[in-house]
Amino acid sequence: xxxxxxxxxxxxxxxxxxxxxxxxxxxxxxxxxxxxxxxxxxxxxxxxxxxxxxxxxxxxxxxxxxxxxxxxxxxxxxxxxxxxxxxxxxxxxxxxxxxxxxxxxxxxxxxxxxxxxxxxxxxxxxxxxxxxxxxxxxxxxxxxxxxxxxxxxxxxxxxxxxxxxxxxxxxxxxxxxxxxxxxxxxxxxxxxxxxxxxxxxxxxxxxxxxxxxxxxxxxxxxxxxxxxxxxxxxxxxxxxxxxxxxxxxxxxxxxxxxxxxxxxxxxxxxxxxxxxxxxxxxxx
Length: 284
Prior knowledge:
The chain is mostly helical. Among the domains are: about 5-45; about 50-160, Alpha-Beta Complex (Cytochrome C3), CATH 3.90.10.10. About 30% of the residues lie in helices and about 5% in strands. It is built from ten helices and six strands. It has helices at about 5-10, 15-45, 75-80, 85-90, 105-110, 140-145, 155-160, 175-180, 220-225, 250-255; strands at about 60, 70-75, 120-125, 125, 205, 215-220. Strands 1-2 form a two-stranded antiparallel sheet. Strand 3 and strand 4 (about 125) form a beta hairpin.
């Protein structure tokens, strides 16, 4: 029976059984649609981040059975000392956990962690402790190999960040850098290449594909301070020319484009208002 006839019979006194069946069928189809949309939304909602002290924490579990155990790497500590660009471009740490191939041997040879933790590179006016010292079970080993060991870390998140400005979630690192509370190092002698500073690109607004989504304010200046240009281009964003990269929130949540950092180390994607002015502050 054509759909227009069904509507006509319902309005003009179709027998109850036939009309009720049609309505029930419609409700059933609508319910399936709603459930499927809800399921899709659940898949593409950003996952709630862990406690701020554990955000960006990396466990390096590639260790010898008789060694000091896994290494815990805290981004919150290192990002207060160094730019992201220095570690991920000059030193060459991969953007994915356990993809670098760091080991005690490479550290001792002056690569990876050993590029700075070599006993000679000065930081805050004193030399950094050497990573993977030749002395067995050196006192500094437990500062990194700290899993399951109490009170071996030199710093705790709560004490170290106590005086830093706070945002809705954790430390407001942009404000800490802006007010000079931290001065991230972007050059290591003998490792980094001296180059003339590039002129920062202008900030711009990204128009979303959906009318109900607030425009995105993107700051080249803020990203350049931490990332330079080469951390984002061309590996994360294939082209520097505006409008050539087609990204979406779905791709970000999957860890692509903005999601390569936001949701892992930089402020979480749950903090909508940091990008979308006037949007909700937080999405659970």
